[in-house]
């Protein structure tokens, strides 16, 4: 069977219709192409802006002080300020180390030199004896930021028991830099709270460490701030409470 009759029956389209359709088909790819280029350029600008922001953030975070500022948090615990950060502070602050040596004197001499009235703790375990001949005192201009502070040590036959640091409350006005999760509020009764700090910064490894279980309990007594260091939390609280009676 011959299929030429199929082509013979096919009608030719109107010439005007053919020309109109040709113009539309020719223009459609051009318009689509223009639209795609516009979208591409618009997206490219967004990409460039995003890339620029990423570069700026990386550059800022590469600077240690800026990184510390971004990653730190200032918080108030029991009325004391703390800057909480994962960054070792020795790398984030300019300036070299300054070693300040204390004056070593007897307890009697220390109490005479120290300008504030001191309440000595009473609830000291019987096996711990105050080293009255070696009280560390920081006074005068040479004491720098430690001015108007003193340290007392209680010793036992097996080693150190406690260390008590008494400072002007103003010394802590700028806060202390600590790692996350190492400070908690402790009640000393009579609506007075203290802060308990676990561990400290390890300068050798540049991290916060509590390898030896060291604790510091800090609380206000009048215009002074007391900080007791030891390893037994209950004993620290008992000793601290005895300074308030």
Provide key terms for this protein:
about 240 residues, 3-stranded mixed β-sheet, 2 domains, disordered N terminus, 14 strands, Protein Transport Mog1p, Chain A, alpha+beta
Structural features, described:
The protein has helices spanning 4-8, 15-61, 64-71, 107-113, 233-242, and strands at 73-77, 80-84, 103-105, 129-130, 135-138, 149-156, 159-168, 176-178, 183-187, 193-198, 200-202, 207-209, 215-221, 224-230. It contains 5 helices and 14 strands. A hairpin with a 4-residue loop joins strand 11 and strand 12. It is elongated. Helices cover 31% and strands 29% of the residues. The N and C termini lie far apart (122 Å). It folds into 2 domains: 14-62; 73-242, Protein Transport Mog1p, Chain A (3-Layer(aba) Sandwich). The longest helix has 47 residues, at 15-61. Strands 3, 4, 5, 6, 7, 9, 10, 13 and 14 form a 9-stranded antiparallel sheet that branches. A 3-stranded mixed sheet has the order 1-2-8. It has 245 residues and is of the alpha+beta class.
Helix vs. strand class = alpha+beta
User: How widely separated are the two ends?
Assistant: 122 Å
What does the average pLDDT come to?
79
Largest sheet, in brief, is: 9 strands, antiparallel
Q: What is the CATH third-level topology name of the largest domain?
A: Protein Transport Mog1p, Chain A
Rounded to an integer in angstroms, the radius of gyration calculated over CA atoms is 37 Å
Number of domains: 2
The beta-strand count equals: 14
> Could you list the spans in which at least 5 consecutive residues all have pLDDT below 50?
1-11, 30-35, 60-70
CATH architecture tag of the largest domain = 3-Layer(aba) Sandwich
> What's the quaternary structure here?
single chain
CATH level 1 name of the largest domain: Alpha Beta
Instruction: Give me the strand/helix succession.
Output: HHHEEEHEEEEEEEEEEEH
General form: elongated
| Continuous helix count | 5
Share of residues in helices: 25-40%
Beta-strand residue percentage? 25-35%
